[in-house]
Specification:
heterodimer, A: about 525 residues, alpha+beta, D-Maltodextrin-Binding Protein, domain 2, Dipeptide-binding Protein, domain 3, 4-stranded antiparallel β-sheet, 18 helices, globular, B: about 280 residues, mainly alpha, about 75% helix
């Protein structure tokens, strides 16, 4: 009998515990909880009026210092950081903190800094402040010099003059890179790392590395009143978890949702999907340091044997052809040198002397079978890399080349050490909508991101020529030529062009999907 | 007397049924490759994410691979690894434990303290750490799990052997001149064998779950291997749009682990003298 009473009491306690646990799940409520009952009811009213947006992004960096690594991208995505010039929906540079500019000679650019713009701490944004922020980027991040090499940066009230070492046709685009975000450099270094003073529509109030960013409206924003009162941006690295968070309304906006999950958000009464083809490409590097991949025939055979049309159908986006996506003018008009043709792949291998002599399904030369290690990792919050890798493994296997898949967590190390034969990547081929920087990094002999050991004197010369070419159209034409040359040499496998997406509940209004993916939160986003 | 017989019969019947099911599963695992209607590795993009029915009774995955064929072939991987690991760890653990228990003294202390240290490592966390350092892959994971898994067998066998010390039959054997390995083989091992077998049988399910769990985390089986845990990992993305990718490998794990756990219970019911009394 005693046992029954005890069990009954325990069951009641358990039920009470569950009820308590499930009861108050309102995060915004807990933020404004007061000590007294009266205060609580007032704050609850305030909360209901407050326009608070919960966002899930695949990455919240280890700092929000724009000069560190790619952390400036996060600063820009959350709507805190701004640059002198920004890229619009057509990926063209438009005025931001600089309201006008002029190129006075090949190497000199003069910018006029917009009058009346203030940092979130109320300080005015002068040419001197912009100079300090840009110079700081150069002293902290080697990547800055890949964009341009300044001989001098001079400030005179609201006039900023940048002189470059060589003519830099992409300077305007390159200044849009969040690395060059204008921040108040007089703030302490710790402050810059965790809550830099910027000019954007939102101000960072709390930042937890790799976890979340809390922001509030910048009351002094120069470009009108921001549409939200506060924002919580949480890092949710896993694509499926972001999907579940949006479905359960834990968040109201997320991006980079996998193609297979987009179907879940087609109900227009509940969700909005915004999609735009961007400059991102799913690419597979082929390391020429490998004795098989150093042979053009093998690279060509692999290129012929993969069915990129079908892969794009599986993962979404467009079939890849050359380096650049069709979001850029230089991505259009490329001749697809390696259309899917497994028979041709076999012929190329036969002609080069790679045949299957022992009947095991793998071709050999001098008794050595063609077996390649393919490294893959989930990239930019997407699991497409695994699908692409397995599809390529299956297709390439059919022409007699065996691929061994290796999953890795730390792809950066694998790439830097060049220990791969093949490896997957999700590259933004034109981070500032200009094609030059990506070529310098990935295809110029000795480039920091030249993971494939690609080297070609003519390509090097063409890239140098591109640097000193002015005019958008001329630059795009030159980049197209280089892209075609690199493609013809079967340098990498350009599998698909990625369609960037942002998905939000219908409560959220004025969301846009920019082709350049370091813009997510804008001043126009608001909530019903 | 009649009452006792009626109690034993259901136990034995249950054991026979479960043993039959376990043997059936092992049979399927051994012949899975030949029974599979499709090549488990070959992608056929034209039938991507096809619902169960028709030619593909369990449906297809994103790459158009037949899930039923992958489950059948995956059984071979899961079973062979599980049995290999259970055999290796139970034998290693039992031998080490028996040695410690039989020799006693300083050897016993040293072996058991080392065992205590290893017991402090949670097996899955240790396997994750090893995979992190040496790289993901079945070999590394199996090695890591084996390194910490044998300890419970050592502890158990050492306890049983220690409890046997000073028993009359061992004294009698000693007076008859039996020593060392003969003593262990003829007198100690047969007495601890039932308990060790019960433990090993009960362990099959846990081992299978541990391996599937690590594959689910992407640390053991690597793509495109048809392994049940890895199949669950692949299905995660399609949980809502193609649930069959998750349901069938999940059911395979559930049924197999359940059968082996029940078989372990059944073996214990039959072999454990205390329970029989």
């Amino acid at each position: 009998m005693n046992k029954r009473i005890i069990s009954f009491l325990l069951a009641i306690v358990l039920c009470m515990g569950m009820a308590t646990g499930c009861g108050n799940n309102d995060h915004t409520g807990t933020q404004t909880e007061g000590n007294e009952a009266g205060e609580q009811s007032v704050s609850a009213e305030n909360v209901s009026d407050e326009k608070h947006l919960n966002v899930a992004l695949f990455w919240v960096s280890t700092s929000v210092d724009p000069a560190m690594n790619y952390d400036g991208w996060v600063l820009s995505r959350v709507g805190a950081g701004e640059t002198l010039v920004r890229l619009n929906m057509e990926a063209e540079p438009e005025a931001c903190l600089a309201d006008s500019w002029e190129q006075t000679d090949e190497n000199t650019w003069v910018f006029h800094i917009r009058e009346g713009v203030t940092f979130s701490n109320g300080k005015g944004v002068t040419a001197e402040a912009c100079k300090n922020a840009i110079e700081r980027a150069f002293t902290r991040n080697v990547r800055a010099t890949e964009y341009f090499n300044p001989v001098s940066i001079e400030a005179d009230e609201q006039t900023l003059t940048i002189r470059t070492q060589e003519p830099c046709g992409a300077l305007l685009n390159n200044l849009c890179e969040p690395l060059f975000s204008i921040i108040d450099t007089e703030a302490k270094e710790e402050t810059i790392a965790y809550a830099p003073v910027c000019t954007g529509p939102y101000i960072i109030t709390e930042y937890v590395p790799d976890v979340k960013v809390e922001l509030v409206k910048n009351e002094n924003y120069w470009d009108g009143e921001p549409g939200l009162d506060s924002i919580t941006v949480t890092q949710v690295a896993d694509s499926d978890s972001r999907v579940l968070a949006l479905q359960s309304e834990e968040v109201d906006l997320t991006n980079t949702v996998d193609n297979s999950s987009l179907e879940l958000f087609r109900d227009e009464s509940k969700y909005e999907i915004h999609e735009t083809i961007g400059p991102r490409t799913n690419v597979v590097y082929m390391n020429r340091d490998n004795k098989f991949l150093s042979e053009l025939a093998i690279r060509q055979a692999i290129s012929y044997s993969i069915d990129r049309d079908t892969y794009a159908g599986l993962i979404g986006g467009e079939k890849g052809v050359g380096i650049y996506s069709t979001a850029l003018a230089c991505g259009e008009g490329i001749t697809d040198t390696y259309t899917y043709d497994p028979e041709k792949a076999g012929e190329v291998l036969d002609a080069a002397g790679f045949t299957d002599t022992d009947g095991d399904g793998i071709r050999e030369k001098d008794g050595e079978p063609i077996i390649l290690d393919y490294y893959l990792a989930a990239d930019h919050g997407s699991s497409d890399a695994a699908i692409i890798a397995q599809a390529i493994q299956s297709d390439v296997g059919k022409v007699g080349i065996q691929i061994h898949l290796v999953q890795t967590e730390n792809m950066a190390d694998i790439k830097d050490s060049r220990t791969f034969d093949l490896c997957s990547a999700n590259d933004s081929t034109a981070p500032t909508a200009d094609p030059e920087v990506f070529l310098i990094q990935h295809y110029l002999t000795g480039g920091a991101g030249n993971y494939t050991y690609y080297t070609d004197e003519k390509t090097d010369a063409m890239i140098r020529e591109l640097s000193s070419t002015f005019g958008t159209e001329e630059r795009q034409d030159k980049a197209r030529e280089i892209s075609q040359r690199i493609l013809d040499d079967a340098t990498c496998l350009y599998v698909s062009y990625i369609t960037g997406n942002t998905v939000n509940t219908t409560k959220v209004k004025n969301v846009e999907q920019f082709p350049i993916d370091y813009y997510v939160i804008t001043k126009d986003i608001t909530m019903e | 007397m009649r009452k006792r017989v009626s109690k034993q019969n259901p136990k034995r019947t249950r054991f026979i049924i479960l043993l039959f099911l376990a043997v059936l599963l092992i049979g399927i695992a051994c012949t899975g490759r030949f029974l599979a209607p499709f090549d488990p590795l070959e992608a056929d993009f034209t039938v991507s994410l096809q619902k169960p029915g028709g030619l593909h009774i369990c449906g297809t995955d994103k790459l158009g691979r037949d899930i039923f064929s992958r489950i059948l072939c995956g059984a071979g991987t899961s079973f062979s690894l599980t049995f290999l690991m259970v055999t290796v760890t139970s034998l290693t653990g039992t031998v080490i434990g028996m040695t410690a228990g039989y020799l006693g003294g300083r050897t016993d202390t040293m072996i058991m303290r080392f065992t205590d240290i290893l017991l402090a490592f949670p097996s899955s966390v240790f396997a994750i750490a090893v995979a992190g350092i040496l790289g993901a892959g079945i070999f590394h994971t199996v090695m890591a799990l084996s390194f910490v898994w044998w300890t419970k067998y050592a502890r158990m066998s050492r306890g049983l052997v220690s409890a046997m010390r000073g028993k009359d039959f061992l004294c009698a054997a000693r007076f008859s001149g039996v020593r060392g390995i003969s003593m262990i083989r003829k007198y100690i091992l047969p007495n601890i064998m039932p308990q060790m077998m019960i433990m090993a049988t009960l362990d099959i399910g846990s081992m299978m779950m541990a391996l599937a769990g690590l594959s689910f985390l992407g640390l053991a089986a690597q793509p495109p291997a048809p392994e049940w845990g890895y199949m669950l990992f692949e299905s995660k993305q399609y949980m809502q749009t193609a649930p069959w990718m998750m349901i069938y490998p999940g059911l395979a794990i559930l049924i197999t682990v359940m059968i082996f756990n029940l078989l372990g219970d059944s073996v214990r019911d039959l072999l454990d003298p205390r329970r029989n009394n």
